[in-house]
Amino acid sequence: MPGGLLNRLRSQWEFIGQIATWLVGSVGGFLQAVPFTYPDQNGSTLSLGSFVVRILVGLLLVPILWFNKRRHTKVWFAATLALLAAGLISFFRNQSLVADCVTDYSGQRVLKGREDTPWTKGQRAADPSVTDAQLIDRQNVSRRERIWTADSIAGCERDIQIWYIVSLPLFALCIMCLLQTIRCSRARASGGP
Asked: Contact at 8 Å (CB) between 47 and 30?
């Protein structure tokens, strides 16, 4: 009996790995730190988005169970490559947004905007070398909307949250598809094409 269970687990390791990837990805999404420390985030938007995306990732288990024959190997391989490309694009997009929308100030990572206010434009015209930290010193960190427009600050926050939420599930889906590719390639050839 124990030998039979061990053989069955050995033959299904890809599927077990897919479930483990989904679970670790689900938990990992809630444990990630937000890429800025000011202003404080209550996390409700990120938690809701993470939850919805995790459900979508879990739904991939349905086609994994249905399409597990050797003839499906190429489709899963293509899905793996597509998800890897999408994951890399979303990761680097998120990193670009963080570089554009977050500045260091007194040991904190402060969310900023992309569009300067008229006051900031005047400050930059008078001194082109003025830094974001110097502008924050002149206005106070709690008055960011006097340095960057409120809409651009909100836009940065929204864009960072969206790309932040999207990256991890794409990589989790990629790993699940890779394991399914291996599983299908090891399956016995069936009578289908």
From this structure: yes
Both tokens of residue 175? 């790993």
DSSP state of 37: -
- In whole angstroms, give the CA distance from residue 176 to residue 179: 5
Which residues have CB under 8 Å from 9's CB, separation 6+? 16
Inter-residue contact 60 to 21 (CB < 8 Å): no
pLDDT in tens, 146-191: 999 999 999 998 898 888 778 778 888 888 888 889 888 887 765 4
d(CA 52, CA 141): 33
Helix (H) and strand (E) counts in the chain: 8, 2
Read off the pLDDT of residues 107-158 as tens digits, 9 standing for 90 and up: 888 899 999 999 999 999 999 999 999 999 888 778 888 999 999 999 998 8
